[in-house]
Amino acid sequence: MYDLIIIGMGISGISASIYAKRAGMNVLLLEGSAPGGTINKINKIENYPGISSISGPDLAYNLFDEVNKLGIEYKLERITDVILEEIKKVKTPNNVYEAKYLLIASGRHPKMLGLKNEEKFLGRGISTCALCDGALYKNSDVAVIGGGSSALSEALYLANIVNKVYLIHRRDEFRGEDTLIQDVKQKGNIELILNNEVTGLKIENDVLTGITLKDQKELNVKGIFIYVGFIPNTDFLINSGVNLEDGYILVDEHHETNIKGVYASGDVTKKEIYQIINAASEGAEAVVYMTNKTN
Question: pTM, whole model, 2 decimals?
Answer without folding.
Answer: 0.86
